[in-house]
Amino acid sequence: MHNTIKSPSFFRPGNRKEEELIYIFNRSEHLPLLIDCVGITNPMSDYFIERSGSSLFVFEQILSGEGTLIYNGTEHRLKAGDFYCLEPYSDHIYRSSPSNPMKKIWINFYCDLFIDIFKALQLSGRGVFHSFDAADKMSTIYALAKQNPDNEILAYPVMNLLFEIVSSISRKISECGNSAGTTETAKKVKMFLDNSLSQKVSLDDLSKKFFSSKAQINREFLTAYHVSPYHYLLERRLELAKFLLINTQTSVKEIAFSLSFSDEHYFSRLFKEKTGTTPKEFRKKQVISLF
Fold first, then answer.
1. 218: Cα within 13 Å, side-chain hemisphere
2. Whole-number pLDDT of residue 290
């Protein structure tokens, strides 16, 4: 890893008195993720941030209110429910509406891997993702940082959450051009599953949450996405497991636990069934291929 947080070449803030700010310490450069700070910005009519040349990613979820973002010369109107991802070395200024100021939750971080991920998922330069709700994951990140603002402790769990957010954004963009014939229930179930990679979810849970029979949920989801909800969730978890095996030093046991598999042996058996190799063998092959 070559993570390094560099100061912006230009930084100008407006009123920030109502920000709840947590600075993260112990930013060892051997870790894959360096978190600078996380925070909650409460409504302030004269709030703004102008930044240029920073090495940081900035992820922000707007919880209420309105504002404006100018990102690399393009202006975006912001409202509650919007999410934006500002990439390193971009020029940007974001501000609250004086009459209806924003409340938002955010994280500033650096990670080499996310530069490649943004390119691979064709998210580079997009900036704003309207009506994308990652408030639960952002709130989890904030709660973890508030409990223990130590990058050594936060790096891996926070990276998992950030990857889930970016992966869900990519899938939402893909769905926008492919939504014909897809029911609202199927879309909602898919979004729920995308946001539940670290939680136990059963067909009974989906039935209760979306007020539909298990058979109907299974049928509508299968028609829309050509896979059952169970197998879709399994594929998403294995996709994230591969990412963690390649790009982190998290143990197989910890990965299994974080993705809600019952135990390490069950996870390893499923992984081998789907990929033809065990998690440990998969990781070893990827490391060898780098040299």
1. 10
2. 42
